[in-house]
Model the fold of this input.
Amino acid sequence: MVVKKNNDPIMIFIMVTCWCLNLLLGGMAQIRNESTVVKVGTVLDISNGTVGKIGLSCINMALSDFYLSHSHYKTRIQIIVRDSHRDVVNAAAQALDLIKNEKVEAIMGPTTTMEANFVIQLGDKAHVPIVTFSATSPSLASLQSPYFFQVSQTDSAQLQAITTIIQAFGWKQVVPIYVDNSFGEGLIPYLTNVLQQQNIQVPYLSAISLSATDDAITQELYKIMTTIQTRVFVVHMSTTVGSKLFTLAKKIGMMSQSYVWIVTDSMANLFNSLSLDVWESMEGVIGVKTYIPRTKKLDDFRVRWKRKFMSDNPSLVDTNLNVFGIWAYDATIALAMAIEKVGNGTAKFGYNESNTSSNYYIPEFERFGIAENGEKLREALLNSRFSGLSGDFNVSDGKLQASTYEIVNVIGNSEKRVGFWTPDKGLARNLDTKDKNNSTYSSSRNDLGTIIWPGDMYSIPKGWEIPTIVGKKLRVGVPVKNGNNYTEFLKVAHDNDTNSTQATGFCIDVFKAVVEALPYGLPQYEFVAFAKPDGEMAGTYDELIMELYHGKYDAVVGDITITTKRSNYVDFTMPYTESGVTMIVSMKDSRKKNAWAFLKPLTWQLWATTACSFVFIGFVVWVLEHRINNDFRGPPSHQIGTSLWFSFSTMVYAHREKVVSNLGRFVVVVWVFVVLILVQSYTASLTSLLTVEQLTPAITDVNQLLKNKMNVGYLKGSFVYGILKGLQFPDSHLIPYQSAEECNELFIKGSVNGGIDAAFDEVPYVKHFLGVYSCSKYVMVEPRFKTGGFGYAFPKGSPLVADISRAILNVTQGEKMKTIENAWFKESSCQDSNTEISTNNSLGLESFWGLFLIAGIASLSALVIFFVTFLYQHKHIWLSNDQSASIWQRVRVLVRIFDQRDLNRHNTFKKSENKNERIVSPLDADLGSVEASPGTHCPPSPSSQTDSVVSAYCDLSADHGSANLLSCAADGKNTEMDVVQITNPEVEPVNNMATSITVTSSS
Done:
């Protein structure tokens, strides 16, 4: 009984569970029976390649995963597989069979671009969407079919990434190598256009047939290696042909140092499918491949896919999932979602048989119908949005949107990531998802990791080589100088022993120094003289340039001037000499030989300023010395003469008057310093003016030559002749010369004797000419006509031009250039072109205004101190409260006081106060007349002979008693009196009487 009770609940639970499972399975079967089956065809290369097999397995897994998670959907896709066998006609036939007989609503595939060309047109006529995940050529978009969906990265999307890499390393030329079919040719127009927009040249296009033999590929590679300078190659082909290409390139030595190989994603996306020997031959290759973000969902799928694929294809052990399989998975999910959206359990899928059309491409087949829901299904695919294995899925414009590319470097038997490229930020070593606001586009090599280049090199290849055949040297053309025609620049001689051309001179030494400064070794070269059999030059310099243009030479070295006309045919390096054409003229002596030459050392402004300064200093010294120095007293004419004599005599230090005041001495010291500098400067300038040779150009203007019909010289065979003809010089006045010596002889003759009065030549020749002959004879003058200077010429597009130019900068900016110049040229001490050679050596005020400023400040300061002190001593006169005294009367009193000697203010006169001088007392009854000082030989002061107020010695004090009025008679005369009552504020009033002074003066 106990056992039975324990088993009853268990049995009931089992019965209920079985009943629920039966209901669930029945319900699922009912749902499956109610679902609409929609046929979808696939045209893939299953038998000949792994891409088709991987794609088909991913399609089946996508459907299984999708309907497992969406079991409630009303539609189910039925896959109908067709094998194209990688044949264009077979692919089209299989697609037509799927449309006509199977009535498929969509077709996935085909695998290649050539197959897709036909299938897309069939789908367009039948309104059947063609969804491809492996045909990546941008040429498919030109079919403009609204029913074509390219669920893959189109090849043109990677071109900007490839161009940015080329820019980052500074390569200027690229040779594309592509497979000669619609897949390869479809990318080339886009590639060349993008490269040319960035000034990257494409000198050659190498097309290799899909069925090319090893010999054919080897022959093409040899052609590139021996005839093309470029060593940067962009390879766009399938892995089958690409593997063969790199294996043969390694055998013939094209995977060595200085080569650069960049492969597109058509190979880079399938690196993991290459064999070991192909990996080894691709050492140093750079690949651009589609970047698929690594997620947990993708990692789980890889594991499940690997397990299923190996069970279905046990013979393909080393096959790995690639990006095409990931795109096939996402494309299947998008198609299932779109079909569910269109069907939704109600719509009926099928074909409208009444609306048929004949097949244009396969005429033997019968007519086929048009899918009824093709338009709705197309719109549903365009609006599909979801997060797939490859990232965000979006085919709004019929193709997968451009995304990030990964840049990898082949090392050994693996690939190493060295960076990324994004459409908005360019190159980046890492994907920084945080810095989304930074919109700077980078094309810097520093944003890439370390790259190992072919030949196991870490140094960046220069990207080009001179394509020389073994045993052949570069032919460097050199002009031939006839006679003694500036052989310092270039001299060419033939060596009979070695049967070779020997070139020497300044231009050759600079060229050799530049070659040594290159960062790489230049191939062996030989100089080839541009000469006739008799040794004469075979033509003009322009004709030599044309020989280079036509390919006779690989370069031209010498004193070749860079001109616009020549640069139209060849490329020039940077100039290594000074540029321009200038004029040489003779010199003449222009020393001043006239009676007024002594005035020339100073300008009239300086003469005038000096004269005014003498007068001013004399006045200042007189003011400071007048009251206390007997030398500056006497009649007005005597005082004026003494003051001027004193200031002018300081010029030769002949003044005999003593200066006794400290302020006066201060002023005189400063002025003597100024005079010393002026005198010494005048003496030096006058000496130079009268003794040193003053040279000036005999001719300073081209118009002077034309107006006077003078002869002009030029270097024979030079382009300068054209410049002179442009200046309207007639041929009768143009005389050629071939050397500096001949030019000098023509100058000596002059135009009168059939010589020349001026010569036009290039600046390097002119400087050499002036170095040979004395600067006192010739000089460069304007005008200077601009030219490019001397440069080296190379064929158009030569990559050597940029490197040689940089090497020229290194040589010319260093000590090497100075050493070469000193070895070939005599250093010229002549002044440069049109340097001011002037006889106007006069000294101007601008050189001495500081001295005059110092003297003026010193003098004005002394005057200010003197007058402030003087006014302070007599402030009782100036500040008197007596309203009857006007300002003018007060000034007259101060002037009279200033005019009198002040023997009490200086210790020089202390002894004379008791011996020789009679000091007038204010209380003397008999004032008498003011007499001349016995201590001076000058007549009495002018104040004794003029009408003025004598108040200097009528000074009252409080000790004078109550009698505060005092009459001071001038000169003892009691004529008409001017009475001025001045209140002395320093004396207190006595008996309420104002202290006053009654001053009597003679009328």
